[in-house]
Amino acid sequence: MIAPEMADRLSDELYQALTLRRPIPLVSRRHPDFTLEDAYDVSLRVLDRRIGAGEKLVGKKIGLTAEAVRQMLGINEPDYGFLTDAMQVPDGAVMHIADSMLMPLIEAEIAFVMRDALPLKDVTAEMVLAATDHVAACFELVDTRFDTRKIDIVDTVADNASAAKFLLGTAKVDPRKLDLAAVGCTVFRNGEPVMSGKGEAVMGSPHNSVAWLANKLGSLGMGIAAGDVVLPGSLVPLVQIAPGDRFEAEFSGIGRISCSFT
User: Fold this and answer.
1) pLDDT, tens digit, for every residue of 64-108?
2) Is the pTM of this model over 0.85?
3) Torsion over CA of 168, 170, 174 and 178, rounded to 10 degrees?
4) CATH number of the domain at 58-261, out of 1.20.1560.10, 2.170.150.70, 3.40.50.620, 3.90.850.10?
5) Which uninterrupted H or E stretch holds 140?
């Protein structure tokens, strides 16, 4: 692992990049021996800075749930990051890209809101459903605090799995009444459909993804808590955002969500 002093310095750089919107060079470019373990350490240090500045931890997110993407990056499992209250914006929000984002992309997910905490090990998909209060339509905005989108897995992990913002739809649906793998989603940009997919794109079903995260976090002494929002991964490929865009997503059995950008 890198020295603690280096981890602190890199987390300072990423925190400044986040708060000041000043992209930094890739960690992987500057430190070829930087490992995934190092990256998660840096990510947690950035989270500590955000919490120290007054943000509250409200959930977790999972990325790289598509097998094809993982093969492309040469990794054998998804990655994860953290959600704070400062990252959440309301359904229908109008966001100013220049105020808070650098190179944003949008993806559509089925968000889980937990009623109960999950155990730290041996979590199954069925246990996830039993512990979930409701699911909701979700847009996640991903961004990079680096000076290029062509990043290595250790870069995105250090950068909180590229998380930027998220929106939850107002409809709250009991996931036990849905076949989550079969839930379809269509994303519209400026009224035109641009992407579609199903829940099965997320590790077979989104609740499989949440179970994976619960076991992964549990192995590290962390967990998914009651009240957590968990974003399990996108049903559709990433879509680029430009000023003037309005996005809507329609999820079968769950509802719609929308946001706009200037």
Assistant:
1) 887 766 776 667 788 999 999 999 999 999 999 988 889 999 999
2) yes
3) -70
4) 3.90.850.10
5) strand 132-142
